[in-house]
Amino acid sequence: MSYLLRLVVPDRPGILGAVATALGLAGIDIVSVDVLERGGGVAVDDIVVELPEDRVADGLITAVMTVPGVQVESLRPFSGQLDTHRELELLESLGRAGGGTATLLADELPRVLHGGWAVVLGGTPDDVTVHAASEAAPELTGLVLPWLPLHAPVLLPSEDDWVPTMWQEMAVEMMAAPFDGGTAVLLGRSGGPAFRRSELLRLAHLTGIAATVAQLPPA
């Protein structure tokens, strides 16, 4: 089974090698590594790992904690496709999407940004229109979304007042960015970790490119 492990590590040479060695000694394979943020002497890394069937998830935490200075921010199951060229593939696909750009974003952004689901939506706080949604996206009917219409990227933590109680209990973390023609892309994941500013900037960058491509004449 695959897991997404978010670590806060000392920002010094060799630290990722030490983590990789610790995981390897525990029989755990690393599939991909994303460095999300660096600053203040620390780095935040997302590591997708493949856990053997005879191992328990707690063994991941035990393994990495043997490396001095490493902190585990979160650990959750990961069901996305395991590849290392997610953003490049999305950008290539945008050029071929034509009128299906919204559907492409909803389907692919969870994979690119380690999310659980995505929705392309628009409207007003109490009159929401869903233009496209990934398979795992929750039902938005009846929800009041006070951040619509969206004019700038925004982090939407699970403790916000508008978030349904059930979503808060599931720690559904979200972020959103403007897309095209008054619409926005909402990306979420259950169980955390909370999205960071660097992830929000990546979302805004990708939706901005997608909006530009959507306005180009057909090739």
Automatic annotation (TrEMBL):
Coiled-coil ranges per UniProt: none
Residue ranges of domain ACT in the record: 4-80
Recorded superkingdom: Bacteria
Pfam family, one: ACT
Name of this protein: ACT domain-containing protein
Native source species: Klenkia soli
Lineage: Bacteria, Bacillati, Actinomycetota, Actinomycetes, Geodermatophilales
